[in-house]
Design a protein that fits this description.
By secondary structure, the protein is of the alpha/beta class. The radius of gyration is 15 Å and the shape is globular. It starts with a strand and ends in a 10-residue tail after the last helix. The model has no long low-confidence stretch (mean pLDDT 89).
């Protein structure tokens, strides 16, 4: 029996939502694709629709087994946190019809798993993503954050299996 899985990482944002798809063979990640969903035009509801439709298209095309999404953290501005939560929900809802497991990770947890410190900068995350995945170029910051979320899950999966724990979102497969 092989231990293969495909993980879609999502870094939600109301204007820029990063995504990254990695294949894992055991503990070894292989880059598949990444990018940024740009929902810059129109009203807020239009931007949420763009996120929903784009993530749905990505899931339909790449068929991940697992989604690893960054959890909402408290912004200085409560309105920004609320908008981020809406964007995150739009991305999550787009995965529901595909029966994938969904796990969430705090931004500090993702940075800790990939860089070694929860206080890492976006540039440090980008550098480590390029290094770990041996990429020829540097993905955009939001795409790098999404790839980091996928790496975080892939790296922590073994520990979760041994301990019977995880950050699985209750009720999502």
């Amino acid at each position: 029996m092989t231990d293969q899985r495909r993980i879609l990482g999502i870094d939600p944002g109301s204007r820029l939502t990063g995504f990254g798809v990695l294949d894992f063979q055991g503990d070894t990640p292989t880059y598949v694709t990444s990018g940024t969903i740009k929902s810059l035009d129109g009203g807020f509801a239009d931007r949420l629709r763009q996120i929903f439709e784009s993530v749905g298209g990505i899931v339909a095309e790449f068929r991940p087994d697992i989604v690893a999404i960054e959890s909402v953290f408290m912004h200085k501005n409560p309105g920004s946190a609320l908008k981020l939560g809406h964007a995150r929900s739009a991305a999550l809802c787009a995965t529901f019809e595909y029966d994938v497991e969904v796990f969430e990770y705090a931004p500090r947890e993702i940075k800790q798993a990939v860089v070694g410190t929860g206080a890492a900068t976006k540039e440090q995350v980008q550098h480590m993503v390029v290094s770990i995945l041996q990429l020829d170029g540097t993905p955009a910051p939001d795409a790098s954050d999404a790839l980091a979320a996928a790496l975080c899950h892939g790296n922590q999966r073994r520990m979760h299996a041994q301990l019977g724990t995880g950050n699985r979102i209750a009720g999502l497969r």
